[in-house]
Amino acid sequence: MSSLPQPHGGVLKDLIARDLPRRAELWEESEKLPALVLTERQLCDLELILNGGFSPLEGFMNEQDYNGVVENLRLTNGVLFSIPITLDVSQQQIDELGIKPGVRITLRDFRDDRNLAIINVDDIYKPNKEKEAKEVLGGDPEHPAIKYLFNTAKEFYVGGKLDAINKLDHYDYVGLRYTPAELRAHFEKLGWTKIVAFQTRNPMHRAHRELTVRAARDRQANVLIHPVVGLTKPGDIDHFTRVRVYQALLPRYPNGMAALGLLPLAMRMGGPREAIWHAIIRKNHGATHFIIGRDHAGPGSNSKGEEFYGPYDAQHAVEKYKSELGIEVVPFQMMTYLPDTDEYAPVDQVKPGVKTLNISGTDLRRRLRTGAAIPEWFSYPEVVKGFTILLTGYTNCGKDAIGRALQVTLNQQAGRSTTLLLGEQVRHELSSELGFSKEDRHKNLQRIAFVAAELARAGAAVIAGPIAPFEYSRKVAKATMEASGSVYVVHVATPLEYCEKTDKRGVYAKARRGEIKGFTGVDDPYEIPENPDLTVDVSKQSIRNIVHEIVLLLESQGLLDNGH
Q1: Chain segment 109-166, per-residue pLDDT in tens
Q2: Which residues are catalytic?
Q3: I want to staple 532 with a disulfide (CB 3.0 to 4.6 A). Which of 197, 211, 491, 539 is the partner?
Q4: Distance between CA 548 and CA 193 in Å, rounded?
Q5: pTM value?
């Protein structure tokens, strides 16, 4: 019998584990069904439904559950749940995919075209967004989640339970991305029975370490640092920088006191409602206590300088439902630095006249962005020299997926930013007036080379992923880029037949029918690179394996040494 708290609703709804025996047949079925390609926010929600982070949910909310949550924080079975978890779709998607009650639709990852789940459509409904905005988020039109609701979220919601096929693939901090079941097993292995969870979307520093250590000490507990690495508030420090800070801070805890796990949550910045939701999520991950700070999960102030929520609304909301949540609230103590004794103390325990120092979160973010001096508990390596990886190959050869995975892998490495220049994105942003003649393809690649060279000169890593079918153009581009840093050509040599067979967008079929002219591999040539630094093939290797090969190449050139 586990000594950890029961998951919310009594059972951990780990759909990946539940459906594993049927995975092969579900995948086969999913390939034949209409597919809905999910947005980044929908992917975050899907991941936490599939792994049980949103237990007791087993899918996206139908209209009854949605109304119950919006109006009185209850699912139809009476269980407490504070944030609507919905799958928004447009009328066009409904029409094109034939979405209606009773049908099954594949849910697909926009990053790599993998099928993740099948939704059994229960209903399609048009939500009352004004009501949702007011009841769930407080109603201020300047609230970022309300802006998202009206300007980005589609007009209909689809409800239904899910069959799980694949967990989402991540390429950064894979060892820190624990599912609820994995984190619970980790706690059981360590013999932890009381766990204080600390939620953060900001970098941590010594004050946070003191706060969490004191909270654990007072309760004879251990600490789970559980930062959000999904979608946070616009303007927040990127999660790669933050996780490096958390990792640097971890050894400063007493041995065996703290663990670090990453949460792929799309925050709504919903204040009191969000705090209840966060408590449910932490309980599902095995925590017994939860630190809730001032204005927890609030987006700050509106343009008039008014706070969206009261400073202690979140603490009061979680206290109100404490018995149902089954998780203890730990109030956030404001800590201040005492330079004369080089220690931290709670603000309310500092004697009058004692010298104190503070750095606000806003000031810290400014220093991190501008490179201004930061106290010694934040140490960042110097900027290292830039380089460019040029991925070349047929359409749908896998270079976009390799590029995206390599970007997050390199971002995890401290010391430099990483920029991704994908073929279609560059065409749209930089070369929209160019066609696909040999001259226009040459011009497009030289523009990419110019941008890559400028970025590499500033110390960035650049991943460029054009088709780049002509050897002469590749050589000219390489010479341009080499003026600012090292350049490595990676030939993504996935066979044309495989690229065409796995093409889910149907562009090869259009080219074969003559609807697209000048299509590389169909009616336009591709010249195989003469001396690539690396040759890879997605039909024979996994994306993870290919990324590892590229990382080893960079490491062998001394480009990933952070000076540690």
Answers
A1: 999 999 999 999 999 999 999 999 999 999 999 999 999 999 999 999 999 999 999 9
A2: 200-202
A3: 491
A4: 37
A5: 0.75
